[in-house]
Every structure is written in C-alpha cells, then in structure tokens.
Design goal:
The protein contains two helices and five strands; from the N terminus they run αβββαββ. By secondary structure, the protein is of the alpha+beta class. It has one domain: Trna Endonuclease, Chain: A, domain 1. Strands 1-2-3-4-5 form a five-stranded mixed β-sheet, with helices on both faces. A hairpin with a 2-residue loop joins strand 2 (37-45) and strand 3 (48-57). It is globular, with a radius of gyration of 14 Å. It starts with a helix and ends in a 13-residue tail after the last strand.
Length: 128
C-alpha cells in the first residue's frame, strides 16, 4: 500500500475512533493484531462488546457501505473476534460487528457512516 493511502487509512481510523467516542463508545483496543490479522477497533457500548471494521474510501467508485465488508472479510472478522475473546478470557458476553465507512476528503474523511450490527453471525459460528 502506498504511503498516501496508508496515511489516509490511519487518519480515517482516528476519525472513526473520535466519532465513536462522541457516541458514547468506550474504545478498548485499536489495531489489535494476532497471527490471523488485525481488528481495527474493539469497543464497548453499554454491555455489548463491539468489533468495528473501518473502511476508508476517497470516492464512491468502489461501492458504498454495502460493498465494504464482503462474506470473506466477515468470516475473517468473526475468527479474529473469537481469538480476541479467547486471549482476553471473555465469556458469555453480547457481541456484535459494526462497520464505519469514512468517505471523501483529501487529508481527512469528509463523511462518516456508521452501520451498527452490520452483519449477522450464524449461531454455529459463535465460538465464544
């Protein structure tokens, strides 16, 4: 990834984090890495643990929020969330997956779209 895109992505994550804090989310982790990949943000909203994928788009050329996290990415996020829960010994906790789409702008995103409970996880895939 070139430096400009990477910088825009990092700025978008910071903006998403700021946006979520203003909405009352408590950020527990940012860029949580494991051997399988990385969770952009992990937060708590009331009694729910929220795994948040941040997508930065300078234009809408590649589709909007509905195209931001496809089935393969969802499967990966579920696996990363299960690893996070195991590492932190979290059990019997309500969890969900959100997507924050940051769009437009040159130096920083001009628009933020937050999709709560962006995708459902089938019961058999829940390993926490």
């Amino acid at each position: 990834m070139n430096d400009g895109r990477q910088a825009f992505g990092q700025i978008a994550e910071s903006e998403a984090e700021r946006y979520l804090r203003r909405k009352g989310y408590r950020i527990l982790a940012r860029n949580d890495r494991s051997s399988s990949g990385e969770l952009d943000l992990v937060a708590q909203q009331a009694d729910t643990l929220v795994f948040i994928e941040v997508k930065a788009r300078r234009t809408s050329a590649f589709g909007g929020a509905s195209h931001a996290v496809d089935g393969r990415k969802q499967t990966r996020l579920v696996r990363l969330a299960a690893q996070y829960l195991a590492r932190h010994q979290v059990r019997n906790r309500s969890c969900r997956f959100d997507v924050v789409l940051c769009r437009g702008g040159t130096a920083k995103p001009a628009e933020i779209e937050h999709i709560e409970n962006a995708f459902e996880v089938p019961g058999e895939d829940l390993r926490w």
